[in-house]
């Protein structure tokens, strides 16, 4: 600690959580500390499971006794001492949002400020007359008349149902009537029958004071009308917002009117979702070359539904529909009839209505969900709001139009906003808040996101950066932030912005602890901690803790990585590839009508800055287009003209970062197909045979073996009021998942719980004599996942870990021997290096090479320069994100790509290779 005060540091002593080896660490406050090390070295155990977890415990201790009764049952971090710990906030990569109502706009509160602005400033426009609906008071109308009719003669009148006697008592004596469209002034007498408009004043429009006083009286008495003599024009002015042409009346808006999450504002048809679920003809009739007799309606090809098909065939003939020609050759009228039915047969819609009555059955709900797709709500056009809310506009745009804007577009719109002096004053604070939030979102590299983008569709990295921007706008101080790889999913171009943002948090007086592998972030750390030297049981030790300068002089994996210069022999693959899959004129989302070639049996890396259209091209267009043709996936691809070369593809597999399971019972060992073999080993033990245990007794899903209290989950869920639900270790099995008698069966002195608690590295040694298990477990270790536990709940895995487990599963199921081939198999990987250290990326690339050696085709969406430098074919999109992206900047091999001047990726790759 040198000469610094003890209070300037977070002090940790005897940390033993997970694989941490009783380590002592100090972390300086108000500084940026980076924790690095290879996968499984203990980074998350220190940052999240020790520092953040202890911070949460101390927060809990301040709660009510009711909350503490349950919460104190949670296991506390295994550490001897943590001193000078500040309030902690963790910003993780995992995106927990599952609902469709949360959007970028609502999550950042930008939409909430827009609702306030629209309720105060927006002008209603009549949907019938397309004219602005105004409400008036005496001061506004005085100003309006002086501006438009200065010097002209006018009658100020009001329309009322009040009796003439009452009006005379109040001092009014004259009325204005029209005969043959000519104005006539009459005295208020009992004999007058036609009087409707009472005169308040007759004047020339130039005296503001007199005009205002007269208008004040008129507004108080009834509906105001102004007759301009020179123009022979009678004008209507309402104190409430009413259309002067058609009489449509609307209420004064409140912020709630513009909320799609409240019945007051939500579209009554789509309930504020912006889309409706409709049955999709392309899913119900996937192959339009088939005739009705051949089974064009695929859902009726199941044996249990044959009756529906037979009655259709009989009724169709009676209805004049040819059942033996391809479905595509039927007229639209005939296709409609097949769905609606008639007196001769029940249509597809009748069948679906019958199913809707049985939605209480799970399998029926699953079936219906597969044949429906979301379509934009035709009533609100996807704007989520009722028509009343969409009548209010600012500069010609309603709030739905603004909600469609990206962060960068909204920033431009606000800068170009034209408001009156009064409107500017009213909206000044909300606009300031919005502008500040937009600035922070741009700084964390999210300018391409639209306000209406659903939070559940964001990647873990995008979700984390969104939360970072929220924290910046909150301007908290004396807080400890724990972040998990904030550069995930970011192009190197945006990394500098993230570093500046992290530094800003420290400038506010906060301590920032970041788990990170990125070279630039590490080089900008005020304090560096490297854990290792290996992963799993070989990790958990402090390799280095201190300032960056001294670290660079050490001989550690990370230090050597920072100092290392990449000396790659760039290969020319220009004329190597013969077979291509060609995607023509892709123009979905922000793609600009691009034609792209993907070579077979090659490693293609698709690059470009965040929001440039990589996922739109590869996942939403290419993958879905191929999968549709192969009959693998029925989800509709984004718009494109044609795709050629699909005949060369036998299978296409998208390996993304979605979870491998949604419950704690899902584990890596089950997903990888290893658990069956392990259960068989335990079932073959003498003790198991004596007790009559089959392999099912060693399954967390079997009543024969799992703990009856927690049903094999290892925890009990406690529902909390006002807090998130708690998951407490099961008191019966102590979190071990199995019955006591099952745990008494042992193999090599280990029971099934102890084996599931092993890392794959430990399991490799434990099952070394078993050739099958040893080879499969070794492959997992080669992918850098040796530190994971066999029985680790799938819910605790990061997106990157889940993705690499899927890659393992593909290799285990596909590569069965030396002569096996993967020719014609296309693998698509979406940012597979998430969470990987430089050393682990080398292991990952070796696995990719194994796939290529088996003639597979691998397409990777990636920002990592280490992976890009190994590409055989590069597709670069850009030049920017959002609307300014979607252009094809380059496709080809690496040699020509490095010469490119208009590509951010090429620029940073040149710098990387020179480093």
TrEMBL record:
Location in the cell reads: Cytoplasm
Question: What Pfam family is a match, any one?
Answer: UvrA_DNA-bind
Gene3D superfamilies according to UniProt: ABC transporter ATPase domain-like, ABC transporter ATPase like domain, P-loop containing nucleotide triphosphate hydrolases
Note whether Zinc occurs among the keywords. Answer: yes
GO molecular function (one): zinc ion binding
Q: Which GO terms describe its biological process?
A: nucleotide-excision repair
Q: Which UniProt keywords apply?
A: ATP-binding, Cytoplasm, DNA damage, DNA excision, DNA repair, DNA-binding, Excision nuclease, Metal-binding, Nucleotide-binding, Repeat, Zinc, Zinc-finger
Residues covered by the UvrA DNA-binding domain: 280-343
Mind telling me which GO cellular component terms the entry cites? cytoplasm; excinuclease repair complex
Q: Does the keyword ATP-binding apply?
A: yes
Note the InterPro entries from the entry.
ABC_transporter-like_CS, P-loop_NTPase, UvrA, UvrA_DNA-bd
- Top-rank taxon of the source lineage equals Bacteria
- PANTHER family documented for this protein: UVRABC SYSTEM PROTEIN A
Q: Please state which protein family the record places this protein in.
A: Belongs to the ABC transporter superfamily. UvrA family.
Q: What is this protein called?
A: UvrABC system protein A
The species this protein was found in:
Thermodesulfovibrio yellowstonii
């Amino acid at each position: 600690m040198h000469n610094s005060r003890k209070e300037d540091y977070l002090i940790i002593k005897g940390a033993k959580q997970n694989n941490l080896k009783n380590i002592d660490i100090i972390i300086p406050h108000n500084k940026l500390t980076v924790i690095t090390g290879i996968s499984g070295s203990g980074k998350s155990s220190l940052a999240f499971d020790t520092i953040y977890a202890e911070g949460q415990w101390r927060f809990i201790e301040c709660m009510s006794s009711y909350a503490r009764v349950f919460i104190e049952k949670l296991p506390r971090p295994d550490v001897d001492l943590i001193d000078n710990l500040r309030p902690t906030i963790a910003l993780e990569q995992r995106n927990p949002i599952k609902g469709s109502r949360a959007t970028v706009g609502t999550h950042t509160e930008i939409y909430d400020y827009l609702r306030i602005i629209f309720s105060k400033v927006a002008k209603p426009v009549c949907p019938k007359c397309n004219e602005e609906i105004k409400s008036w008071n005496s001061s506004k109308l005085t100003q309006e008349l002086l501006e438009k009719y200065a010097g002209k003669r006018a009658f100020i009148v009001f329309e009322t149902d009040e009796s003439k006697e009452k009006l005379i008592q109040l001092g009014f004596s004259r009325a204005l009537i029209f005969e043959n469209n000519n104005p006539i002034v009459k005295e208020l007498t009992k004999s007058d029958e036609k009087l409707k408009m009472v005169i308040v004043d007759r004047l020339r429009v130039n005296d503001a004071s007199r005009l205002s006083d007269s208008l004040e009286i008129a507004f108080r008495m009834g509906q105001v009308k102004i007759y301009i003599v020179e123009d022979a024009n009678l004008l209507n002015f309402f104190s409430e917002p009413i259309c002067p042409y058609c009489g449509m009346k609307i209420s004064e808006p409140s912020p709630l009117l513009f909320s799609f999450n409240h019945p007051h504002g939500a579209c009554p048809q789509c309930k504020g979702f912006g889309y409706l679920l409709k049955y999709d003809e392309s899913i119900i009739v996937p192959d339009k070359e088939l005739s009705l007799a051949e089974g064009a309606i695929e859902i009726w090809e199941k044996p249990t539904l044959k009756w529906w098909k037979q009655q259709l065939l009989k009724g169709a003939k009676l209805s004049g529909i040819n059942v033996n020609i391809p479905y595509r050759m039927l007229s639209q009228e005939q296709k409609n009839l097949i769905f609606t039915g008639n007196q001769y047969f029940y249509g597809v819609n009748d069948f679906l209505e019958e199913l809707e009555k049985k939605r209480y059955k799970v399998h029926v709900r699953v079936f219906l969900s597969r044949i429906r797709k979301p379509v934009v709500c035709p009533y609100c056009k996807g704007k989520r709001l009722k028509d009343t809310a969409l009548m209010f506009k600012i500069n010609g745009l309603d709030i739905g139009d603004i909600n469609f804007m990206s962060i960068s577009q909204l920033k431009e719109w606000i800068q170009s906003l034209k408001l009156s002096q009064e409107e500017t004053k009213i909206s000044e604070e909300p606009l300031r808040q919005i502008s500040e939030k937009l600035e922070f979102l741009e700084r964390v590299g999210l300018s391409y996101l639209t306000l209406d983008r659903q939070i559940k569709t964001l990647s873990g990295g995008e979700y984390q950066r969104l939360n970072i921007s929220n924290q910046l706008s909150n301007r908290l101080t004396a807080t400890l932030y724990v972040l998990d790889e904030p550069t995930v999913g970011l192009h190197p171009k945006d990394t500098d912005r993230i570093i500046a943002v992290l530094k800003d948090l420290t400038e506010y007086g906060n301590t920032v602890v970041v788990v990170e592998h990125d070279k630039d972030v590490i080089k900008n750390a005020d304090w560096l901690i490297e854990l290792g030297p290996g992963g799993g049981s070989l990790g958990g030790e402090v390799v280095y803790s201190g300032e960056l300068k001294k670290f660079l002089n050490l001989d550690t994996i990370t230090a050597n990585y920072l100092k290392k210069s990449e000396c790659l022999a760039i290969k020319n693959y220009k004329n190597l590839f013969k077979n291509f899959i060609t995607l023509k004129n892709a123009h979905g989302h922000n793609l600009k009508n691009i034609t792209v070639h993907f070579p077979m049996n090659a490693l293609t890396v698709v690059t470009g800055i965040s929001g440039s259209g990589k996922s739109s091209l590869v996942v939403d267009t290419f993958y879905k287009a191929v999968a549709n043709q192969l009959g693998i996936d029925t989800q509709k691809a984004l718009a494109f003209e044609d795709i050629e070369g699909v005949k060369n593809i036998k299978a296409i597999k998208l390996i993304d970062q979605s979870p491998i399971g949604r419950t704690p019972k899902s584990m890596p060992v089950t997903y990888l197909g290893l658990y069956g073999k392990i259960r068989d080993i335990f079932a073959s033990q003498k003790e198991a045979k004596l007790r009559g245990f089959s392999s099912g007794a060693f399954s967390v899903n079997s009543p024969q073996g799992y703990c009856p209290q927690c049903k094999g989950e290892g925890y009990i869920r406690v529902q909390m009021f006002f807090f998130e639900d708690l998951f407490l270790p099961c008191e019966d099995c102590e979190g071990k998942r199995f019955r006591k008698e099952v745990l008494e069966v042992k193999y090599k002195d280990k029971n099934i719980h102890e084996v599931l608690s092993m890392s794959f590295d430990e399991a490799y040694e434990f099952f070394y004599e078993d050739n099958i298990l040893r080879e499969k477990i070794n492959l997992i270790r080669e992918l850098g996942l040796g530190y994971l536990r066999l029985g680790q709940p799938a819910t605790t895995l990061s997106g990157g870990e889940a993705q690499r487990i899927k890659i393992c599963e593909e290799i285990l199921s596909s590569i069965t021997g030396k002569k096996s081939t993967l020719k014609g198999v296309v693998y698509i990987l979406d940012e597979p290096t998430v969470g990987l250290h430089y050393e682990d990326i080398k292991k990952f690339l070796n696995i990719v090479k194994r796939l290529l050696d088996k003639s597979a085709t691998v397409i990777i969406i990636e920002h990592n320069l280490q992976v890009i430098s190994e590409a055989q074919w590069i597709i670069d999109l850009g030049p920017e994100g959002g609307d300014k992206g979607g252009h094809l900047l380059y496709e080809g091999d690496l040699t020509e790509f490095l010469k490119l001047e208009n590509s951010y990726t090429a620029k940073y790759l040149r710098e990387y290779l020179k480093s």
